[in-house]
Design brief:
There is one protein chain. This protein is an alpha/beta fold. The chain has two domains: about 1-40 and about 290-380, Rossmann fold, CATH 3.40.50.10350; about 50-285, Glycerate kinase, domain 2. It is built from 14 helices and 13 strands. The chain has helices at about 15-30, 50-55, 85-95, 105-110, 130-140, 160-165, 215-220, 230-250, 265-275, 280-290, 290-300, 320-330, 360-365, 370-380; strands at about 1-5, 35-40, 60-65, 70-80, 100-105, 145-150, 170, 190, 200-205, 280, 300-310, 335-340, 350-355. Strand 11 (about 300-310), helix 12 (about 320-330) and strand 12 (about 335-340) form a beta-alpha-beta unit. Helix 1 packs parallel to helix 14 (about 370-380), helix 3 (about 85-95) packs antiparallel against helix 10 (about 280-290) and helix 8 (about 230-250) packs parallel to helix 9 (about 265-275).
Length: about 375
């Protein structure tokens, strides 16, 4: 029996590699004759850069940058040789003559993971740290950037990152605004692009939300970043004004309605407009980069999961997308999640919530590893 073990992270509880390791140990105990192919998944958020970098034996670097609220924090990124990528991943990125690719995730420098619930407020967060990671990568020889945008704490249309990359933000009197976040947007009257050319940027993104509107960045993603309902209209109006300033600065046509432009508080819009960045489907790229199709072909059983499995898990997210691909190939799938809010699992999938009823969230997060081990071991013991 050959098993593909491919977990995404259990947010705030287990990393994807940790979840895969726990599953691997459980299988080794219960079914020592089985062969395990461990393949941690990444969705553009936490773990995206480290997982993809490690998969092609890239170089890992860590530096101090500014976090989403301006406090210093350590963040890492990867440097990889594009020629080491599987052909399908290289073709999707379409990087041309690039020789060194930086793999960066917003979650490392500008992510919700670094803030307490009380600190989450999109009016007072920015993406400067993400821009600083890109700057460091360029200084280290990168000539292209792959940016994962999951798990961001920001809604600054990428202005923080752009200013870190040389853009200037001016007040009406011509003075510079040093730190530009939405709380200070009322002072901003003009944006001036930097003089240094920006590298080729590819944004791994699985959302199709535009920048503005009912499905836009503020309306859909603002609440999870701390946006109060009574502030939505004001943030939406200011976002529209700032987006126009970004476009005017580079003479770029309106990209506000572009699918995916609203990703990560509009950083996708900022880089699409200012750097001619391209969006690439996140899970499709990860699947090709990790050569999941070949691993799936060889598997007799697929074991996957994440912190919460719900309807959105079947709309392009890693474990859900993998499960649907496995079902298409008539492979049995076991899905384990901390919480489940899906009325019915796809045909061919067994869906298990690992958290015992009545467990508080802090307890569930602290004991996720033990519960994953227990529920998977129980399921393995039942298999004939």
């Amino acid at each position: 029996m050959r098993v593909l073990v491919a977990f995404d992270k259990f947010k705030d509880a287990l990393t994807a590699p940790d979840a895969c390791a726990i599953a691997g140990h459980a299988i080794a105990r219960q079914r020592p004759t089985w062969s395990v192919d461990a393949c941690p998944l990444a969705d553009g958020g936490e773990g995206f850069a480290s997982i993809l970098t490690a998969a092609v034996d890239g170089e890992w670097r860590e530096i101090e940058v500014l976090g989403p609220r301006g406090a210093p924090t350590q963040a890492g990124y990867g440097l990889v040789d594009p020629t080491r990528l599987p052909a399908a991943a290289r073709a999707r990125l379409a990087l041309g003559p690039a020789t060194r690719l930086a793999v960066i995730e917003m979650a490392a420098a500008s992510g919700l993971q670094s803030l307490t619930a009380a600190e989450r407020d999109p009016w007072h967060t920015d993406t400067r740290g993400t821009g600083q990671l890109i700057c460091d990568a360029l200084a280290a020889g990168a000539d292209a950037v792959l940016l994962g945008v999951g798990g961001s704490a920001t809604h600054d249309v990428g202005l923080g990152a752009l200013t870190a990359l040389g853009w200037r933000a001016e007040r009406a009197d011509g003075s510079d605004i040093e730190r530009i976040c939405p709380a200070g947007w009322s002072e901003l009257t003009k944006l001036i692009p930097g003089t240094a050319p920006l590298p080729a940027i590819r944004i791994a993104c699985d959302v199709s939300n535009p920048l503005l509107g009912e499905r836009g960045a503020a309306a859909v993603f603002g609440p999870q970043k701390g946006l109060r309902a009574e502030d939505l209209a004001r943030l939406e109006s200011e976002t529209a004004r700032i987006a126009q300033l970004v476009g005017q600065a580079v003479g770029q046509p309106d990209l506000e309605s572009t699918p995916g432009a609203g990703a990560a508080g509009g950083i996708a819009y900022g880089f699409l407009t200012a750097a001619n960045a391209r969006l690439v489907p996140g899970f499709d790229l990860v699947e090709e980069w990790l050569d999941i199709a070949a691993k799936l072909d060889q598997a007799d059983l697929v074991i996957t999961g994440e912190g919460r499995f719900d309807d959105s898990s079947l709309e392009g997210k890693g474990p859900g997308a993998l499960a649907l691909r496995a079902v298409e190939q008539h492979k049995p799938v076991w899905i384990f999640a901390g919480a489940v809010s899906l009325e019915q699992a796809p045909t061919g999938c067994e869906l298990t919530a690992i958290t015992p009823p009545g467990t508080t969230l802090p307890e569930a997060l602290a004991t996720a590893g033990a519960h994953l081990d227990r529920t998977l071991s129980e399921r393995l013991s039942l298999r004939e």
